[in-house]
Amino acid sequence: MNSRLLPKSIQALRNYTFSKGIADLIAGLTVGLVALPLAMAFAISSGVQPEAGLYTAVIAGFLISALGGSLTQIGGPTGAFVVIVYGIVAQHGLNGLFLCTIMAGILLVILGLTGLGTAVTFIPRPVVVGFTNGIAVLIASTQIKDFFGLKIDNVPGDFVERAEVLVRHFHTMSGSATTLAIAALAIILFCRKFLKRVPGYIVVMVLGTIAIMVFPLSVETIGTRFGGIPSGLPAFQIPEFHPDMIGPLLSPALTVALLGAIESLLSAVVSDRMSGDKHNPNVELVAQGVANIASPFFGGLPATGAIARTATNIRSGAQSPVAGMIHALTLLGVLLCAAPLAQYIPLAVLSAILMMVAYNMGEWAEIPKLLKMSWATISVWFITFALTVFADLTIAVEFGVILAAMLFIRKVATTTTVSTVTPDYIESGRLHTLQGKQIPDYVTIVRIHGPFLFGTVEKLAVISDQIEKYPPIVILRLRNMTAIDATGLMALEELAAKLHASGRTLIVCGVRSQPAKLMRQAGFEHSIGRDNICPHIQAALDRAQCLQEASVRTSTPPTTSAGGLAVESGSR
Predict the structure, then answer these.
(1) Which residues make beta-bridge pairs with 445?
(2) Average pLDDT over residues 247-269
(3) How far apart are CA 112 and CA 119, in angstroms?
(4) Which residues pair with residue 505 across a beta bridge?
(5) What is the 3-state secondary structure (H, E, C) of 463-478?
(6) Rounded Cα–Cα distance for residues 205 and 36 (Å)
(7) Nearest alpha carbon to residue 527 among 479, 452, 476
(8) Phi, psi dihedral angles at 475 (to 5 degrees)
(9) Angstrom distance (rounded) from CA 398 to CA 105
(10) Domain boundaries in the chain?
């Protein structure tokens, strides 16, 4: 079988050693304990029993690691699904959720088997940031009740109604629950800043549980609300399905599939950056699909790659997908041996954990960057965010993609020009042409030809995957790049950072009017240095020569304080 079609687990086991096994064991145990409070918190916030989150982490987590295309990714329930799952359960019940999850799993398998694993790159960055911001706000709003211990019988699913109810009942705040939640949040933040190797989520869960067992605190726990968590293996059961449920669930299933694909591939990219590996997106999507098909038969929820748990896995020393499988078995061991203790876990602590999760997933640092972009980019982000919060996540994603596609067409259309060729035009073109120019050995020129918008940025891998093979200076020639958007600009910034980290300089030359305007608005010059943005290829070569001469005098690589970036026609 073609090795490109094999799961990473099989490829990794070919050269598996005892030392790797020990490293995977430690990492798997660590991330398994970190996943314990998160899995229960996500389930509770989704409107289902806490054990459903654990069942998801065990079944789906094991399958994603065993069958996936990423070396160290961890799968399981995530915050991205909380809002959509809550809505599905409220409208269609648990059986509706199970059917929707299976349908989403089938869609993911189809995406992977047909080689469309990269299709999610056609969802523009402003849309992703918009609904991620919105989901974070919604998750935080659902945790206010338990964080402050408010006495509310039923919290509405609608954001505006929920806000009104929370404000109206805020006088019922519990001092004990609030103190416990604030203390938990403070400990998590302390561990995050000063004790980075100590998993704050585990610490607060253990301390909170001990506090409930020792002190007579009047706070709600998993036991008081849900009656605890059943011990033992999750039971296999076939949910009750009705054909008339399929139609209404098609749209939510598509949303779950898209969210799962986006989240898993983003997580896999994070895994690649931290581990130095390269994931296979299509194999990964097939594994995600299989996991989501299997999860409902054991009472589980939708699952996808979990960025924070993946990062924890790698920092803990994971060497292969075996660590992810051990993470799932660790949670299974908790279910078999320690489930009765879960009844003492205070919901205020779990709400503090989810508040932290909401903050971490919000990608708030992206907002100032987006606000520097064009009005079209800002409108896509804001409308997607607003629809996510005030309408429906499915509508938000669909509308955001449609709006972005319309703006994409408009942006491409505006790059078409018709003009008369004049002697001045011919003369100005001589500075941009490569013919007759000497390309020194310390320079590689790469070009981008055509619009560089969402859906095309993966083509930049021709550079990023071969950085170590390049000489000290890379020139990116943008003479024929007719348009760029926020997604494309972010890809260039990431390339600049990678080149700078490798000791190389990036120089950009020949930028046309629309890309140049967006780069100025976004402050792109701060990423590569103002002197490394040149008007044409001759100026870029002159700049490269100056850098090279300076490096010879100082005996250091020709980099600048801001890095360096340039792209041209791909061959020297």
Answers:
(1) 475
(2) 87
(3) 10
(4) 473
(5) HHCCHHHCCCEEEEEC
(6) 9
(7) 476
(8) -105, 125
(9) 19
(10) 3-344, 427-554
Give pLDDT, residue 564. 37
How many CB atoms lie under 10 A from the CB of residue 117? Answer: 25
Residue pLDDT, tens place only, 221-257: 999 998 888 888 888 988 888 888 889 999 899 889 9
pLDDT for 566 beyond 60: no
Contact predicate 7/66, CB 8 Å: yes
Structure tokens at 342: 């879960």
Q: With H, G, I as helix, E, B as strand and everything else as coil, classify residue 484.
A: strand
For residue 477 the two structure tokens come to 């020639």
Taking the model in full, what pTM does it have? Answer: 0.76
pLDDT digits (tens, 9 = 90+) for 417-448: 666 777 776 666 676 777 767 888 899 988 88
Pick the CATH number of 427-554 from 2.40.50.140, 3.40.50.720, 3.40.50.11810, 3.30.750.24: 3.30.750.24
Quick check: 200 and 187 in contact, CB under 8 A? yes
CB atoms within 10 A of CB 420: 5
Least confident of 68-72, 92-96, 344-348, 456-460: 456-460
Say which residue, 122 or 268, is predicted with more confidence: 268
Contact between residue 448 and residue 476 where contact means Cβ atoms under 8 Å apart: yes
Task: Write 206-215 long-range contacts (CB < 8 A, 24+).
Answer: 208/180, 208/184, 208/345, 208/346, 208/348, 208/349, 209/341, 209/344, 209/345, 209/346, 209/349, 211/180, 211/346, 212/344, 212/345, 212/346, 213/344
Residue 68 has pLDDT above 50, yes or no: yes
Positive/negative CA dihedral, 245, 131, 358, 26: positive
> Dihedral angle at the C-alpha atoms of 375, 377, 381, 382, nearest 10 degrees?
10
| 271 contacts 277 by C-beta, under 8 angstroms | yes
Q: SS3 of 20, please?
A: helix
- Is the distance from CB of 285 to CB of 112 less than 8 angstroms? yes
Closest CA to 223 of 354, 143, 339: 339
Residues in CB range of 479: below 8 A, 6 or more apart: 432, 447, 509, 510, 512, 536, 537
- Spatial distance between the Cα atoms of 266 and 104, rounded to a whole number of angstroms: 18
* pLDDT of amino acid 74: 95
Three-state SS sequence of 163-204: HHHHHHCHHHCCHHHHHHHHHHHHHHHHHHHHCCCCCHHHHH
- Count of CB atoms within 10 A of residue 386's CB? 13
Q: For the segment 195-211, what is each residue's pLDDT rounded down to a tens digit?
A: 887 888 889 999 999 99
Spatial distance between the Cα atoms of 16 and 320, rounded to a whole number of angstroms: 9
Joined together, the tokens standing for residue 520 give 């100025």
Alpha helices in 362-475 (DSSP H): 366-370, 375-390, 393-414, 423-429, 461-464
**pLDDT confidence of residue 93:** 92
With beta carbons less than 8 A apart as the criterion, state whether 373 and 517 touch: no
Q: Which amino acid is at 227?
A: G
Q: Which of 147, 154, 150 is nearest to 172 (CA)?
A: 150
φ, ψ at 296 (rounded to 5°): -60, -25
Q: What is the mean pLDDT of the chain?
A: 85
- Does the pLDDT value for residue 132 go beyond 90? no
The answer to whether 570 and 449 have CB atoms below 8 angstroms apart is no
Confidence at residue 567, expressed as pLDDT on a 0 to 100 scale: 38
Radius of gyration of the chain (CA): 26
